[in-house]
Amino acid sequence: MLYHVRMDVRIPQDMDAGVKADLVAREKAFAQEVQRSGRWPHLWRVVGEYANVSIFDVESNDALHELLSGLPLFPYMEISVTPLAKHPSAIEG
Ligand SMILES: O=C(O)C[C@H]1C=CC(=O)O1
Q1: Helix (H) or strand (E) holding 66
Q2: Which value does ipTM take for this structure?
Q3: For position 44, which CATH number holds?
Q4: Distance 91 CA to ligand 1 centre (A)
Q5: CA-proximal residue: ligand 1, atom 5 (nearest)
Q6: Which of 23, 27, 71 has most ligand 1 atoms within 8 Å of its beta carbon, as the pocket-test mutant?
Q7: Binding-site residues, ligand 1, Cβ < 6 A
Q8: What residue stretches are annotated with the Muconolactone isomerase domain (predicted)?
Q9: How many domains does the chain fold into?
């Protein structure tokens, strides 16, 4: 199942720099692992914002919630999820 996900990152300004660097590094490693698994086929930066738009391909709402809530940055992100369905005019499978 496909989901459009927007993540707006809201790391507190007063977070210790070392803690922030570790958090961002762990998030990057986790994100790349999920991408390599095929569950995160699109990850794009929103121009001019500390935010991304992504496409996730997972088996259920519960699976997506487990994945997103497991992101190291989850506590510091505003996340919006839009489930996607086939479009009748789409030429691709
Ligand atoms: O930077 C972001 O968009 C937030 C998060 C998503 C992937 C990642 O490495 O960090």
Answers
A1: helix 61-69
A2: 0.97
A3: 3.30.70.1060
A4: 31
A5: 27
A6: 27
A7: 7, 9, 27-28, 31, 52, 73
A8: 1-89
A9: 1
**Rounded distance between C-alpha atoms, residue 44 and residue 52, angstroms:** 5
Task: Residue 33: count other Cβ atoms within 10 Å of its Cβ.
Answer: 11
Single-letter amino acid, residue 36: R
Residues 6+ apart with CB under 8 A from 58: 1, 3, 39, 64, 67
In a domain, 90, yes or no: no
Q: Is residue 9 part of a domain?
A: yes
CA-nearest of 70, 44, 56 to 1 is: 56
Tell me the pTM: 0.95
pLDDT tens column, 43-75: 999 999 999 999 999 999 999 999 999 999 999
Is residue 35 in a domain?
yes
